[in-house]
Design brief:
- By secondary structure, this protein is of the alpha/beta class.
- The strands form five sheets. Strands 11, 17, 18, 19, 20, 21, 22, 23 and 24 form a nine-stranded parallel β-sheet that branches.
- Helix 10 crosses helix 11 and helix 15 packs across helix 16.
- The chain is globular.
- It binds zinc ion (ZN).
- Zinc ion binds next to loops.
Length: 603
C-alpha cells in the first residue's frame, strides 16, 4: 500500500502484503452524536461525544514511555494526534466509519526513535560511493579492493577522482596509512579514502596535488596534515581531510536525489521519526525544506549549525552566521534550527589521537607520552562563545570525546549560567567517550544533556587495538560512562552518528544494555558496569532525545494529545532476550498518524 493520503482508502486486498484493514461502518450500530460518529459503543446521557479514530492500532504490547502504564491499543485522530491509549476494549470506543485498523499482532508499539545526532545528508549520499564497509584489512587487501574499484570505473581515467567511503582508520592491521601505499596503484587518478569516523582521511599524491597540499601548506584551523621527512604523508585529520575532499567533484543532482530517497526511506524503515543533522549549515536547512516539500523526507528535522574552530573565537561573528541560517527556516516546514554545533576535539583512537585528554596518551607500552590530544577551541574561547550564544537563546551541542573537552564544555555551560541566569536552552555534550568522575554530577547540576552513541560501547577494533594500549587504564575502564551518568542524574539522549556507523537504532538500544551488541569482537561486554536497563535505554532513544530536540509536549511518548509518531515492532521487546533486540524489524512507522513505512515497503 503506497497511498497514505487522508482520503478514504479501499479495503486491503485479502491476500495483500499489508495487514492493515479498513473497516467501513461497523458490525454494530453507528451512533451519531453532535456530528461525531462512533461505532461499537453507546453513549449514556451526558457522555461527551468521542472523536472518531482515523487509525487504531490494536493487539499491541504498548510501551507508552511511562513504566507504570501498559496498554494494548492506540487511537489516532484525523489530525494525527493520539486520541486514546488503553485496552482493545477501551480504544474500540473510538472506532467509526472509515477507521483503519492496524493489528500489531503482539509486537511492541512505542514512540518512534528520535536520532538526536546523525549526519543524514552524508549518510544518504554515502551510498553513492564505493564502500570499504568499515572492515579491518591489511595493506595488500586494501590495495586489492581499490584495484577493483578502479577497474570498475575505467571511464574515469586519467584524472577522475576515486572517493571511497567507510575506510576504517583503526582497522589497518599491518601499517600506518601513507600515500606510498596508494601511489603504487596503477593509476594517475586522485584517490581519497574517507574514514568511517569522519575524523581521518587518506589521500594519494595525486589527490594532495589536486587539492594544492604541499610541504609548505600550513595545517588548517581545526585539522592536521600529518607529515614525515618527505612532506605530507597523505593522512589527514579533521579540517585537513575536508580541505582535500572538497577538491573532489560533488555528486550530480540526480545521484544525490536517488541517494536521499533511499536513505530517508531506510531511516523510516528503521523506525526513525525525528532526527538532528548534527553538523549543518544554511544550505542544509534549505535542502531539508526542499526534501520535505517533495515528500522525500517525512521525519521531523532539526539542523544544528556548525561553528568552525576559527569562527568560534569570534562569538558575535558566530552568532551572526547561525542567525543567518535560522532566517532561512520556513514556518511549518517541519525543519527547525535552534542548535549551534562546536567541535571541541577529535577522536581518541590511534593514529589520530586528537581527543583532548586530561591524562596524556600512552606510548603503547604503558608509558605516558607528552601528547594530550588536540583541543580545537580553548576553554577561554569556548566560555565566551557559550555565554554569547546562550544569552541569544541558542542550544549548544559540543563534540567532546576526551575528558578535557567534556570538562571544557561543562565549564563553558557553567559560565553561561552564571552570566545569563538559568535558561531552558538544553545544552548538550555529545559522544562523551571519556569523562572524569568528578564531572559526572555536573551534568545534572547544570542540566546538561548527555547525548551518546552507545553502539560504540562494545569491544571492537576501535576500543581494543587502537585504543586500549594508549589510554590510561583508569580512564579506559570507565569508557562511555552511561551507567555512571544515569546514576548521577544526567538526562541521556541517543544518537547514531550515522554514517560514522551503520544506521541501526535497535542495535544501539541493545548495546546500551548489554555493552556487547551485535559486533563484539570478544563476544563479551565492554565495561559492563556502565550498562543501563532496557527501559532507560528506550527512554534515552525516545523521550530523552525528543527533549533534546525540544519536542517534549509534541512527541517522544504515546499519550493522548501528543502527535502519533509511533513504531510497531515485529516482537515484544520487553519480553524478548536482549540479544534479539538488534534484529528488531519495524513493521510500521507512523509520523503524525500517517504511515510512512509498512510491510509492503520492507526490503
Ligand atoms: Zn557526529
Amino acid at each position: 500500500m503506497t497511498d497514505h493520503s487522508d482520503e478514504p482508502q479501499p479495503p486491503a486486498p485479502s491476500k495483500g502484503i499489508s495487514r492493515r484493514t479498513l473497516l467501513v461502518g461497523g458490525s454494530v450500530g453507528v451512533v451519531v452524536v453532535g456530528g461525531a460518529v462512533a461505532a461499537g459503543i453507546s453513549f449514556s446521557r451526558g457522555t461527551p461525544p468521542l472523536a472518531v479514530a482515523k487509525t487504531m492500532i490494536v493487539n499491541g504490547a504498548v510501551w507508552t514511555g511511562d513504566l507504570t502504564r501498559t496498554a494494548e491499543a492506540v487511537a489516532i485522530g484525523r489530525d494525527g494526534v493520539i486520541l486514546g491509549v488503553g485496552s482493545n476494549e477501551d480504544i474500540g470506543r473510538f472506532k467509526g466509519a472509515g477507521t483503519e485498523i492496524i493489528d500489531a499482532e503482539g509486537g511492541t508499539v512505542m514512540p518512534g526513535i528520535h536520532d538526536a545526532h546523525q549526519h543524514p545528508l552524508s549518510g544518504a549520499e554515502g551510498a553513492a560511493y564505493p564502500s570499504l564497509g568499515d572492515e579491518s584489512v591489511t595493506v595488500a587487501e586494501l590495495q586489492e579492493r581499490l584495484r577493483g574499484f578502479l577497474a570498475s570505473t575505467p571511464d574515469m581515467e586519467p584524472d577522475g577522482w576515486l572517493v571511497v567511503v567507510d575506510w576504517n582508520p583503526a582497522g589497518l592491521t599491518d601499517a600506518i596509512a601513507h600515500r606510498d601505499f596508494l601511489d603504487v596503484l596503477e593509476t594517475n587518478r586522485p584517490i581519497f579514502l574517507a574514514g568511517s569516523d569522519f575524523h581521518n582521511g587518506w589521500a594519494n599524491s595525486a589527490a594532495l596535488a589536486a587539492a594544492g597540499v604541499t610541504s609548505t601548506t600550513p595545517d588548517p584551523e581545526g585539522g592536521v596534515i600529518v607529515r614525515d621527512a618527505n612532506g605530507p604523508t597523505g593522512l589527514l585529520k579533521d579540517a585537513a581531510l575536508w580541505a582535500v575532499r572538497g577538491a573532489a567533484p560533488e555528486l550530480t543532482d540526480k545521484q544525490k536525489q536517488d541517494a536521499y530517497r533511499a536513505g530517508f526511506q531506510l531511516a523510516a524503515s528503521l523506525g526513525i521519526t525525528s532526527f538532528m543533522d548534527a553538523a549543518g549549515g544554511r544550505e542544509s536547512v534549505e535542502t531539508f525544506q526542499d526534501l520535505r516539500g517533495r515528500g522525500i523526507v517525512h521525519q521531523r528535522v532539526s539542523v544544528a549549525q556548525t561553528i568552525d574552530a576559527d569562527t568560534a573565537t569570534d562569538p558575535e561573528g558566530a552568532l551572526a552566521q547561525i542567525e543567518d541560517a535560522r532566517a532561512a527556516v520556513i514556518k511549518d516546514s517541519g525543519v527547525s534550527v535552534r542548535t549551534a554545533k562546536v567541535f571541541l576535539d577529535g577522536v581518541a583512537e590511534f593514529p589520530a589521537q586528537t581527543a583532548a585528554m586530561l591524562d596524556p596518551y600512552l606510548d603503547g607500552d604503558g608509558s605516558p607520552t607528552d601528547h594530550y590530544g588536540e583541543q580545537y577551541v580553548s576553554t577561554d574561547d569556548f566560555t565566551k562563545l557559550a555565554t554569547t550564544l546562550d544569552a541569544a537563546g541558542w542550544q549548544i551541542h559540543t563534540h567532546s570525546i576526551g575528558d578535557a573537552a567534556v570538562r571544557t564544555s561543562l565549564d563553558g555551560f557553567q559560565a553561561a549560567r552564571k552570566n545569563n541566569g538559568k535558561r531552558d536552552n538544553r545544552h548538550t555534550i555529545t559522544h562523551i567517550q571519556f569523562c572524569t568522575e568528578s564531572d559526572y554530577p555536573r551534568f545534572a547540576e547544570l542540566e546538561v544533556i548527555a547525548n551518546m552513541q552507545l553502539q560504540w560501547a562494545t569491544p571492537s577494533a576501535f576500543t581494543l587495538d587502537s585504543l586500549q594500549p594508549y589510554i590510561a587504564p583508569h580512564s579506559y575502564a570507565r569508557q562511555y560512562p552511561a551507567g555512571a551518568l544515569h546514576r548521577a542524574g544526567a538526562r541521556l539522549s541517543g544518537g547514531s552518528d550515522w554514517p560514522v556507523d551503520r544506521l541501526n537504532p535497535w542495535n544501539q538500544v541493545r548495546t546500551a544494555v548489554d555493552r556487547t551488541g551485535s559486533t563484539s569482537e570478544t563476544g563479551g561486554p565492554l565495561n559492563a558496569s556502565e550498562s543501563i536497563d532496557l527501559a532507560t535505554s528506550l527512554t534515552m532513544h525516545t523521550e530523552g532525545a525528543a527533549y533534546q530536540l525540544f519536542q517534549d509536549g509534541l512527541t517522544g511518548r504515546i499519550e493522548p494529545g501528543l502527535a502519533a509518531d509511533i513504531v510497531i515492532l515485529n516482537h515484544n521487546l520487553l519480553t524478548s532476550p536482549i540479544a534479539s533486540v538488534s534484529d528488531t524489524t519495524v513493521n510500521y512507522t507512523l509520523i503524525n498518524g500517517k504511515v510512512i513505512h509498512d510491510p509492503s515497503r520492507r526490503q
